[in-house]
């Protein structure tokens, strides 16, 4: 049994949903059947658990505590190639405050309640009991990893874990303010009949997948945001489905990755122009 597999089974037995990481501390890519979420993923990618395929697909959402899945032949092959073990904090009712350097650690010591600490390569993970939404770059060198995110397992750490308090929850709220993008005019539906995209589940799933794509971007965030906006508009921009609320969700996801309101507006405008929708 490989060391990552042994660690994963032990963590799963303690209630931590686990998944393998390859080199670069990133999840294994989707299998051919699930590429670009062709399989549909889990329901809107909001809950962890294995896909209907047998592979460790879909990043954080593949995290599981099921020893049968973890020990399955396809997962065992992944464990053999794994560089590390990760877990889904939100799935275990936990929040990780990821402090990336000494300045961030100093800020946390002065600002956050003491709790269990895990040393990392460059900083520390502060663990709290309770789940919240994840957010990157809530302040310099500080990320929040909980729901819809994964954290690398680096050991149990030290200290007594503290309940998640409002002072920690407020970090994500402060850095992800409500976005009120300008109203967007899109072409009317051509032809007769009801718009095929007006089914709420279809549109909501598309927006949720777009939010997830932005949230999971590890680099080239500007390009990812633009391509995601372009994809959403190419599907929903010509039939009047999109509302200001949908756009706000996308802008909020982009701002949580560090994009400014101006960058969001520019990316949206450029996508409209590319699709010939800007002058309608």
Protein traits:
280 residues; alpha+beta; Prim-pol fold; 3 domains; six-stranded mixed sheet; four-stranded antiparallel sheet; 37% helix; 14% strand
Percent of residues in beta strands: 5-15%
Shape: globular
Order of helices and strands: HEEHHEEHEEEEEEHHHHH
* Mean pLDDT over the residues: 82
* Total helical elements: 9
Instruction: Kindly name the structural category.
Output: alpha+beta
Structure description:
- There is one protein chain.
- This protein has 280 residues and is an alpha+beta fold.
- It has 3 domains: 3-86, no CATH class; 90-175, Prim-pol fold (2-Layer Sandwich); 200-274, no CATH class.
- Helices cover 37% and strands 14% of the residues.
- The strands form 2 sheets. Strands 4, 5, 6, 7, 8 and 10 form a 6-stranded mixed beta sheet that branches. A 4-stranded antiparallel beta sheet has the order 2-1-3-9.
- Helix 6 (200-215) runs antiparallel to helix 7 (221-236) and helix 6 (200-215) runs parallel beside helix 8.
- The longest helix is centred in the last third of the chain and has 16 residues, at 200-215.
- The chain is globular, with a radius of gyration of 20 Å.
- It starts with a helix and ends in a 6-residue tail after the last helix.
- 38% of the residues are buried.
Summed up:
With 280 residues, the chain is α+β, with helices and mostly antiparallel strands.
Chart the SSEs and their pairings:
Layout: H1 3-13, E1 18-22, E2 26-27, H2 67-70, H3 73-81, E3 84-87, E4 94-99, H4 102-111, E5 116-119, E6 124-129, E7 135-139, E8 142-145, E9 151-152, E10 162-163, H5 166-175, H6 200-215, H7 221-236, H8 244-256, H9 261-274
Parallel strand pairs: 6-10
Antiparallel strand pairs: 1-2, 1-3, 3-9, 4-6, 4-8, 5-6, 7-8
